[in-house]
Design brief:
Length: about 325
């Protein structure tokens, strides 16, 4: 039986990875600074602890553990990342988790490790047009992320690759492009756009108004969580290290994302555009490399994922 550690198991993507690994027959230990808010984890062992503490990391990483999945990070949506108010915490907390985990992985001769980077590493200067044709992996340099979150992710990518070169650690790195779906943050200020739009629409009457930061013309692509987990597993079972994009190339404006949510709900909405952080004007995933290396492409449309997410958020509101 293979043995895996999921760092950030109490979070959105980590929780889904625990479920997938258990379905595949792994023995799984999860670790997080908090318990999962929305589901009961099926891992064999869950450790409530802080990955910024090297002593805790030493306790949860076993000798010759087969795989580590490092999702733990200080993160959130635009309201958390782009105000600048949390920059020091974002950089310090995430970097400490990564430094501790990768160092202990080498110390304990771990088989291989996955690191979840982000599309936020790409230069702001190539994301100023809403009609973004897609960000290719080799566009990361010259570097110029639009946030400290992106800078920390880029630093950690380089650190993992340096550990691979200098210590022989097998590393796999993916740049996530806006992963969404059930059992993720949907309120409180750290939620991302799909969850925020679903919640706002679910909260109003049949013909109501929602608020939106900016003009809503900014564009993104969003990837449903099940697709993300499948791509990560393929990457970990491959001989390709990355970094590689894991995202959808189905681009949409935030205005149209809100209208899609309303259509799913069978409601008419009015959008009140207000000042607020929006990030870059256009971001989309370019998937040539992942198709070539892993034979992967999203199987579900954005609409299908949004329907599942809206239903789940509607259920959360009903029980709140």
């Amino acid at each position: 039986m293979k043995k895996a550690l999921v760092c950030g198991a109490g979070g959105f993507i980590g929780g889904h990875m625990v479920k997938r690994l258990k379905e595949e027959g792994y023995w799984v230990r999860g670790v997080d600074i908090k318990e999962h808010e929305y589901t009961e984890l099926t891992c064999d062992e869950f450790v409530l602890g802080d990955l910024r503490d090297p002593r805790l990391v030493a306790d949860v990483v076993d000798d010759n553990m087969d795989e580590i999945y490092q999702f733990a990070a200080d993160m959130g949506g635009a309201g958390y990342i782009f105000t600048g108010e949390h920059d020091a915490n974002v950089m310090h907390n995430s970097a400490m988790c990564n430094l501790n985990v990768v160092d202990e992985a080498v110390r304990k001769s771990v088989g291989k490790i996955f690191y979840s980077s982000s599309a936020c590493i790409y230069p702001e200067s190539i994301q100023m047009d809403t009609d973004n044709e897609g960000l290719k992996e080799d566009m990361a340099y010259p570097a110029g992320p639009d946030s400290e979150y992106g800078w920390e992710k880029l630093f950690s990518e380089r650190m993992y690759m340096a550990y691979q070169r200098n210590h022989g650690l097998e590393v796999h790195i993916a740049r996530f492009h806006n992963i969404f779906g059930p059992c993720g943050t949907w309120c409180g200020g750290k939620e991302k756009a799909p969850a925020a739009m679903c919640r706002k629409v679910a909260e109003i009457e049949a013909d109501g108004e929602i608020e939106m930061w900016g003009d809503g013309k900014q564009t993104r692509s969003f990837l449903f969580i099940d697709e993300c987990i499948e791509a990560v597993r393929r990457l970990m079972n491959s001989d390709f290290s990355g970094p590689i994009n894991i995202g959808s190339d189905e681009i949409i404006s935030i205005n149209d994302l809100a209208l899609m949510s309303a259509d799913i709900a069978g409601k008419k909405i009015h959008i009140n555009h207000i000042p607020g952080p929006t990030g870059v004007r256009g971001r989309n995933s370019e998937n040539t490399l992942i198709k070539e290396k892993l034979g992967w492409a999203p199987a579900q449309s954005l609409r299908m994922g949004m329907e599942k997410t809206y239903t789940w958020i509607e259920q959360q509101l009903a029980t709140k």
